[in-house]
Amino acid sequence: MGLERTVQFPADGVPAWGAVAAHLARVGAAAPLRMIDGMPAFPDEEPERGWRELRAGLPAGMVTVRRAGDSIAVVVWSNADAALLAARDVVAWACAAAGGGSVEGALADEFARVCGLSPA
């Protein structure tokens, strides 16, 4: 069972992973890729535009990013601690910020405030 945040984008607005990674780097949250669509990935590998699932390694643990249509689900396991839940929220924010999306109805800046994130 996973705990997830859903990020909704305008039509064809799902950002490339490079744009998401740039937002993560901006706030000091390195998230090297570990898997792309079920296959091992190099940490600096850029997935092709049609990727379906990514696994990113953050200091707090592994975060899964699943793409479905014009949305992305950012998922961690249900036994996640506070640090991993915060990492999930940072990844969700970065996805929304990179693609002009909203996290469960909140625009990126509003979501950041609600979750106590401090985007630079």
Number of helices: 3
Low-confidence stretches: none
Mean pLDDT: 92
First-to-last CA distance? 33 Å
Cα-based radius of gyration, to the nearest Å: 13 Å
Number of strands: 8
Oligomer: single chain
Number of structural units classed as domains: 1
Q: Which outline best applies?
A: globular
Largest sheet: 8 strands, antiparallel
> What is the H/E order?
EHEEEEEHEEH
Strand sequence of the main sheet, in spatial order? Answer: 3-2-4-5-6-1-7-8
- Alpha-beta classification: alpha+beta
Strand content: 25-35%
* Helical fraction: 25-40%
Your description of this structure?
- The protein has 120 residues and is of the alpha+beta class.
- The chain has one domain (2-113).
- 30% of the residues lie in helices and 32% in strands.
- The chain has 3 helices and 8 strands; from the N terminus they run E-H-E-E-E-E-E-H-E-E-H.
- It has helices at residues 17-26, 82-99, 108-115; strands at residues 2-8, 33-36, 39-40, 53-58, 61-68, 71-77, 102-103, 106-107.
- It has an 8-stranded antiparallel beta sheet.
- Helix 2 (82-99) packs antiparallel against helix 3 (108-115).
- The radius of gyration is 13 Å and the shape is globular.
- The termini are far apart.
- The model has no long low-confidence stretch (mean pLDDT 92).
